[in-house]
Amino acid sequence: MNQKKVAIIGSGVIGGGWLARFLLNGWDVNLHDPDPEAERKISEVLANARHALPMLYEMALPAEGKLTHCATLEKAVRGVAYIQESVPERLELKQEVFANIQAHCPAEAVLASSTSGFKPSELQQGSHRPEQIMVCHPFNPVYLLPLVELVPSKATQDAQIARAKDILTSVGFYPLHVQKEIDAHIADRLLEAVWREGLWLIKDGIANTEEIDNAIRYGFGLRWAQMGLFETYRIAGGEAGMAHFIAQFGPALKWPWTKLMDVPELTDDLVNTIADQSDTQSGALSIRALERLRDNNLVAMMRALKQQDSAAGQLINAHEKSMRQIAKPSQKMQTIQRNVPVDWTDYNGHMNESRYGQVFSDAADAVLTNLGMDEAYVAAGHSYFTVETNIKYLEETHASEDIMVDTELLLAEGKKLKLAHQMKRVSDGALLATCDQFLLHVSLETRSSCVPLSPVANAIRILAQ
Amino acid sequence: MNQKKVAIIGSGVIGGGWLARFLLNGWDVNLHDPDPEAERKISEVLANARHALPMLYEMALPAEGKLTHCATLEKAVRGVAYIQESVPERLELKQEVFANIQAHCPAEAVLASSTSGFKPSELQQGSHRPEQIMVCHPFNPVYLLPLVELVPSKATQDAQIARAKDILTSVGFYPLHVQKEIDAHIADRLLEAVWREGLWLIKDGIANTEEIDNAIRYGFGLRWAQMGLFETYRIAGGEAGMAHFIAQFGPALKWPWTKLMDVPELTDDLVNTIADQSDTQSGALSIRALERLRDNNLVAMMRALKQQDSAAGQLINAHEKSMRQIAKPSQKMQTIQRNVPVDWTDYNGHMNESRYGQVFSDAADAVLTNLGMDEAYVAAGHSYFTVETNIKYLEETHASEDIMVDTELLLAEGKKLKLAHQMKRVSDGALLATCDQFLLHVSLETRSSCVPLSPVANAIRILAQ
Question: For residue A439, what is the nearest residue in chain B, using CA coordinates?
Answer without folding.
Answer: B393
